[in-house]
Amino acid sequence: MQREDMVLCELLYQLADDNFILAYRGSEWLGLAPHIEEDVAFSSINQDMMGHAVMYYQLLEELGAGDVDALSHCREPESFRNAILLERKNGLGHYLENPNYDWAYTVVRHYLFSVLKQIRLESLYHSSYEPLKQAAEKISLEHYYHSMHWETWFTQLMSSTKEARHRMENAINYCWQEFDGVISLGRYGKEICDHQLIVEEEKLRNEWLKRVCTTFGEMQFSPKTSPGMESGNGRNGEHTEDLTEALEVLSEVYGGDKQAVSW
Amino acid sequence: MVLTPFDQLTADEKYDHFMERIEKGEKIEAEDWMPDEYRKALIRLISMHGISEIMGALPEKEWVPKAPTLHRKLAIMAKVQDEMGHGQLLLRVVEDLIQPLGKTRDHIMEDLFTKRLKFHNVFHMPAPSWGDAAIIAWLVDGAAILSQTMMLNTSYGPYGRALKRICQEESFHAKHGESLTLALASGTEKQKAMLQEALHRWWESLLTFFGPKSKQETGHTNVDIGIKYKLRTKTNEQLRQEFLTKYVPKIQLLGLSIPDEQLRFDEDTQEWRYTEPDWQKFKRIVAGDGPKSDERLALRRNSYENSQWVRDALRHFKEQASEHVG
User: From its record, what is one biological process in GO terms (chain A) (predicted)?
Assistant: First the structure.
């Protein structure tokens, strides 16, 4: 593979894996959301996001990286390029046994991610790689509604009961410690930008901070530090046990019969 | 002729007027006068249907994160989402019916948690393999389509309209189920075995899906009231016969065996003969004593309690907003 293609693939893996793993985490919420209407809405968002992952995996398939199902189900954890924050469990417990999931964490994580995703998409409209540009245009049609959804949840829970505010601030503080890992473009970040595939990390960070802090300001909240990357950089293949477990679950059936050609 | 205003009619006259409307095939709407027996029958029928859709999401939900390919993951997510959506649609219909009784959705949930409100027998059963996901989508949804289609012309307008949309979506589910089943049936030995085992597990539940033939089996049935008020048009046994006619040949065509040696079509009576399922077991399951009843109820209850703070916060936010406007 040419160096240029390798760099392009790095970015595509980041985009695909972020959407894939967060949609997977969302799918674990199915049937457990705070009310039935949200269950339906959230599931729709998860399907869209997994659909976005499929589009990015297809671009990888076209570049010869392998079949979309193998890319999403058969890679080792260290070859995943998603940010660590997005692979973390939804809370305590397992999706089948005593899931003690935290809705505040889910709202904050999705809200913060949706702002960055929007900024990334805006930058991808100008990507030098035409298929990526086209994918970004399609994705943003759906992402517009996701952003609105999470911003609504975010602002309502931030400006309601004391308990909700307390839970939301805890969730922000937790996500804040890891969010630089979502902004990061990884060890090939400079080359990715040199090929004009997407704008520099620094620009993504500044724009994200500007937008997020505007909403925070309206909610009378201000973060005390810069966003961190405490658990490591997923873009470089550093991951937690949470990803390993998630991959085991999501590939249990697919990997359960190596002879199977069709499911 | 001087017409007496409706609210000045005697209770008997109101009832007669109501039954005339039912006989004429008119649709009853939420605001219309209706006898208590009719309202109660609707509440029982539709809340059980609605909550079964929601509890029915749980066995399949187990397979959502595990579905084998991206395509299957997307399809099963969409399917389970539809089931939740049906639950929502139906609970909205029930909310209108229970509103005059001073009740809300919270009461429906309470009734579920205390097992006063029953959900369908099939959703108390385990779904331990991907084969179960296929059988549920193909045959449980197939059975559901038969009983829901039968009620499309129900006398209660709002229920009929909800069912129309539900039936349209269910037919996609049955196609999804057929596709999952076909892939396994034409796959490796391991895949075939997975499907066959699941069919064996589900057969008795499928036979009991439509409920007992008559009062003799379980002590009571609501079929008579349903037919009197034109909520339904067929008996449980008629539906079961339709199901067998539609699916037994398809199952056999796939090379799958059905775990009932007595099963055959009797040419003389033009009816299917089958081994009578254990109706006492069925009764216990529906009462909330099935293999997965407590586990699934606990899952639902815990998630409901864990997110109480969210619903409180939303209510508070709404109140604040309306005070602000006021």
Answer: phenylacetate catabolic process
